[in-house]
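COMPLEX REQUEST
Ligand: iron/sulfur cluster
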Amino acid sequence: MIKNILDLLPKELIQQLLNIGEKKYRANQILNWIYNKYTTDFSEMTSLSETLRTELQNILEITIPTIITKSSSSDGTTKYLLSLHDRNNIEMVIIPNGKKNTLCISSQVGCARKCAFCATAKLGLKRNLETYEITSQVFLAIKELGEEKLTNIVFMGMGEPLDNFDNVVKAIRILQHDLCFNFSPRRITVSTSGVIPQISKLAETGLKLKLAVSLNSAIQSKREVLMPISKIFPLSELKKTLIDFRKKTPYRITFEYVMIKDFNIGKEDVKALLKYLGDISCKLNVIKWNKVDDLHYETPSTWEIKRFIDSMNVLSSAVTYRKSRGADIDAACGQLAAKNIIRKEE
Ligand code: SF4
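STATUS: Structure written out below.
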């Protein structure tokens, strides 16, 4: 079976080469072509013999998703609708911010978690992405950015990353490996809706990364409305798991809070949130809800947002108001829906 190179750790590439009677050091040459020169064609790897180049084509491939559409927002954010080999579509978003370029990537086609405020949830889960379908989004983004540097990666696109645990963990190992993408752990954030067993499992892997938790309410009954996962994994258990996770990681946990008018920004919500976060070493990112077609929620006014943020000032944690980026192209938080998810027959 032909393997995709973007699916392989260096040691696995070495094994592939040994299987065809090649020397180990060839792996470094090939990885250099891929991760430093971003070559996708073996025939261009001129430091390899012609025979090896032909042999490689018989056992390996380098495929990246096809760009179907590219939409640019007035704030510089670019959303990509990408087509996979089986005609499923996903989305990724590049968000520039000064010298930083953050890539928001997908981990699944659709999502099973049914969060009430999220456009992806409406699709249901089609399938998990393979490891190479995750790493190839990064590969593609680097090529798209050209001279500019990709500085941060966030798993906040389509899908619950921890529901595709093995492929996401392997993708992160490839993203961090110094012979591959060589990303620093502090530049990679995985965002979860709160899949407790997988958070514990992630802590056990020893993998270094930043963890973000989509919280959105610290009141159990309200969180269950917004995020049905909370019925299976309640807030109290989630907190215990996160405190344990924090002991095993150098990075503070980030809580994401989508502000929804008349739902989760009132006095009782503030009180519950301050109590929930008060004794966790964390950061709080608040963001206003972005309109999604067919969903009945509303975006709070500027005044309501300010009042909510001001009430968080007593927290010792850092509180950040993340401005929505790309809302005019449905690329903001919770808006990714890969419209036309199954590509129509040409
Ligand atoms: S917010 Fe995340 S976990 Fe929830 S449905 Fe959307 S993609 Fe899935």
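REMARKS: The radius of gyration is 21 Å. Residues 111, 113-115, 118, 120-121, 158-160, 193, 214 surround iron/sulfur cluster (CB under 6 Å).
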